[in-house]
Design a protein that fits this description.
By secondary structure, the protein is an alpha/beta fold. It has 16 helices and ten strands. It has two domains: about 240 residues, Aldolase class I (TIM Barrel); about 80 residues, no CATH class. About 40% of the residues lie in helices and about 15% in strands.
Length: about 350
């Protein structure tokens, strides 16, 4: 049996969401799904705090660094950093339509300059041994020509040797729409991405955009090599728990939502013991129990700023009691005293490696 593509299923890079804490949660739910960082600009890496941007938990592999930039020399230096820090892939963003990104001369506006993009990608490939990939749209503004995206892909493959293309199946409108509207208003045109795979059968083509169910993932895999899921994976993280079995023919990572919660609470406890505010990470699991009775009460406890000084395990106990319909949680000022209702006995949770804070 042929091994599935490393890009068979992945979670999209999403600004302010897919930080290392979010990725750790996703990895607890799926061992095989490929994970991506938030976009990190070359300027932030070359003139900012490198450990803050690049540190990650070793358990996250396979994990890719997404870069935003356009200068070949800068991209090459950042690709070397990605390799030094142990990432599995480095990806160039040619799809973000925000005005701030356009002012930096990168993101979706780069699709109008395929030769510049090719030079940057070639510099990245020459600078490191990692897979160098690109994420882009099917077009910019209101142009609907298939030839535009076909030529973009062909140029990057021929001139830079790129073999993996992650294609958001919408145009990016560079004027008149907010980033949110750019995820919703330009129509999805999956057929163009399918046509790319037919025209470039030797390339790995991954489709992204508007995919929210396992059935839709399975349907797309009939046409392309991989599927990247975005906001659905964030808002409904439990969806990831079924992906290993369905799409990788591998055992599930966790059997229940409670098991996943226990594992993430153990991680939150390691953050708290190291002085990192755990609520920054806890926000990523607020959708874990979506659709179940009591989920709203559970979220309210985890979101209560009065409880942020308590140990994560105590907040977890109160949240489960609230979810079961137990007594309301006690304000933090009253201390971590007993709550009405017994909590489930502790589960054995996976050991969590320490965060990688320095390049190897």
């Amino acid at each position: 049996m042929t091994a599935p593509s490393p890009w068979r299923l992945s979670v999209a890079p999403m600004m302010d969401w897919t930080d290392r804490h979010c990725r750790l949660l996703h990895r607890l739910l799926s061992r095989h799904t490929r994970l991506y960082t938030e976009m990190v600009t070359t300027g932030a890496l070359l003139h900012g705090d490198v450990p803050r941007h690049l540190a990650f938990n070793e358990q996250e592999h396979p994990v890719a660094l997404q870069l935003g930039g356009s200068e070949p020399e800068d991209l090459a230096r950042c690709a070397r950093l990605a390799e030094q820090w142990g990432y599995d892939e480095v990806n160039l963003n040619c799809g973000c339509p925000s005005e701030r990104v356009q002012r930096g001369a990168f993101g979706a506006c780069l699709m109008a300059e395929p030769l510049l993009v090719a030079d940057g990608l070639k510099a990245m490939r020459d600078a490191c041994s990692l897979p160098v990939t690109v994420k882009h749209r099917i077009g910019i503004d209101r142009g609907e020509s298939y030839e535009f995206v076909r030529d973009f892909v062909g140029t990057l493959h021929q001139r830079a040797g790129i073999e993996v293309f992650i294609v958001h199946a919408r145009n990016a409108w560079l004027q008149g729409l907010s980033p949110k509207e750019n995820r919703e208003v330009p129509p999805l045109r999956y057929a163009l991405v399918h046509r790319l795979k037919r025209d470039f059968p030797q390339l790995t083509i991954v489709i992204n955009g508007g995919i929210t169910t396992d059935e839709q993932v399975a349907e797309q895999l009939q046409h392309v090599d991989g599927v990247m899921v975005g906001r659905h994976a964030y808002h409904e993280p439990w969806a990831l728990a079924g992906w290993d079995a369905r799409f990788f023919a591998a055992p599930a990572s966790v059997a229940t939502r409670e098991e996943a919660e226990d594992a993430f609470v153990a991680y939150l406890s390691t953050l708290a013991s190291s002085g990192t505010p755990w609520p920054l990470a806890a926000r990523h699991m607020l959708g874990l129990h979506n659709g179940l009775p009591g989920a709203r009460r559970w979220r309210q406890v985890w979101s209560d700023h009065h409880l942020k000084t308590l140990p994560p395990a105590e907040v977890a106990r109160r949240a489960r009691a609230a979810m079961r319909g137990g007594a309301a949680h006690t304000p933090a000022a009253a201390g971590p005293g007993p709550c009405t209702g017994s909590s489930a006995s502790p589960r054995t949770t996976p050991s969590l490696p320490t965060l990688q804070e320095n390049p190897p």
